[in-house]
Each structure stands twice: as C-alpha cells, then as structure tokens.
C-alpha cells in the first residue's frame, strides 16, 4: 500500500530546484588556469571580424555618448572633444540639457572652463553669454539624456543620415535598478574597443580573477536582418574562494560604437552592461584616442534588492572599481590590436 505523500520521493527534486533558485551561488572545484579548455580554435578571427563589420554597418544617426548623466549639472559645464570636435554641455535652471561647440565664437576661449550662471554659460574671457540657442555664431548641437548617459549628435562628424534620437538598447526599469558609469581612455580607435567586446572567448583566460567556466554557446544569436548581431555565453562570475555565480549573457551591437551585455538567465537577470566607444582628438603624436564609457545597470527580482537600491551611493564606486579592473586589461588588448593594425601586422 502506498501511503500519503509526506514530502519524500518526487518532491525532493522540486525542493532542490527551489533551493537553487533561492541561492544563486555554486561551489566549484578549483582548476588551474593553464588547465582550462583552450578557446583559440573557437575564437576565429573571421568570426570576430565579421561581427565587427556588421556592427560598423549599423546606423548611429551621428549620435555619440559624451558622458554620464550624473556628470552634467547646472553649476559648471562638461566638455569633451569628440573626433576632434570640441563639445560643451550644461543644464539650464530647469535641468534641461544644452550643447554646442566647445570653442567660444568670439576668440576661441575653451567654454568647458567657463561658469554656468543661472542656467547661462558665460565665457570667462570676455563675458559672451550663451543660453543654449544660436547666438553670435554659436550654433547648438542636438543632445539627448537617456537617464544614464548623455549623447550629442554631430552630423558633420558622423556623416550619416541623422536620427531624432540615439539607437538605445533594451534596459531594465531605471527606477528598480542601480546604475554606475565608468570612463577610461585608450590609444586606439573605437573599432578596437568593439572588437574586444565581440571576443567573449578571452574572458576566462584574460580575466581569471573574475570569470571561469566560460562557454560561447551561439555565435549567430540575433544575426538575422530583424535582430541585432551577437553572441550567447554561459559564464560564472567569481565571488569568493570556490563560490561562483553562473549566468547566461548575450552580447549584441545596437549601433556601431556600442556593445551591450544582457544577463538573460541567472542572478541579475535583466541587468545590462553597455560599452560605448567614443572617438576623441588624437594625442600629441597623432595617435587616435578613444573614450570607453561603460554603463552598468544592475537589477534583480529578489526582495532584498530594494536594500541594494537604497545603498546605491555606496554601490556605485564598487561597480566602477570592478569595471575599471577589467578595463585595465581590456584596454591593453584594444591598444595592442590598434598598434598591430597601424603597422599592418594584425593577423586578424
């Protein structure tokens, strides 16, 4: 005779799955770095080059990421040279963004060094006051704040058909997320930054302190004409000791100078990491320089994530530090790639 179900038998796998859902960490037996599976055969140069070519063919509408939304306030302007074009951005008294040439039309003063007074940018050389509208030879640029990043449209620089707004990737609800932006600069071109992000195979080898058990599942994800090009990847993030956090991530390119990593399964599902490559002015030797502006937008369906949102001011420096450690390595990759390309020696 079979008695009533008292919680044994087939219910155990269900309890096991429930526990795995509640506890995102896994314990992994350590494997020496040099004993992990080699990925050079899968990381075909033609595959990376093909993904880069398809990304470069996408429209940008002449929009460039200039910086983080939090960097641009109403007390002083924010300035950056985009592809050799000086740009200045500030906010008026209502918080609205204003943008235009970073050189004063009078005698060329650097407007990024001038103060903002009651929402008006006042040149510190001779007092030319700019409220954001066309005036005295100064013509504004279209500007867009997506809530995390600020974009500026430079039609003369981009040379494409302009779009009314940037091509933005899907994001989690910002009200239920924690966002941080990290910026660094390297001696390379935007394509070298994008190529680095379109090579997920290097992750566990080049960043063993952060990633382990990386496997590229699909190199054709979204490669149809109706979807973004990208890669699907299973990878575990190292937490501490043997503890790891396995996730599935999908890398896509919504426009030529952006690669986005979406967490599609595992802890932090819905979170994104956006890597934007903005060309700057060349250095004193004429070498290209590119700003990497990376936005990390973290979210979670766990009830405890509300505490994380409340602690966002403390979390953002940690998120930037984590991104910075990875980009110290990845910039070396991108700069080496440009160095070889500039000499005609790049094997890819």
From TrEMBL:
Domain of life per record: Bacteria
Keyword terms: 2Fe-2S, Iron, Iron-sulfur, Metal-binding, Oxidoreductase
Signal sequence extent: none
SUPFAM superfamilies: ISP domain
Biased composition (Gly residues): 1-10
Gene Ontology molecular function terms on file: 2 iron, 2 sulfur cluster binding; metal ion binding; monooxygenase activity; oxidoreductase activity, acting on paired donors, with incorporation or reduction of molecular oxygen
Annotated region (Disordered), positions in chain: 1-22
Coiled-coil annotated spans: none
UniProt xrefs under PROSITE patterns: RIESKE
The keyword GTP-binding is annotated on this UniProt entry: no
Domain called Rieske: residue spans: 63-152
Name of the protein described by the UniProt record: 2Fe-2S ferredoxin
Organism: Streptomyces globisporus C-1027
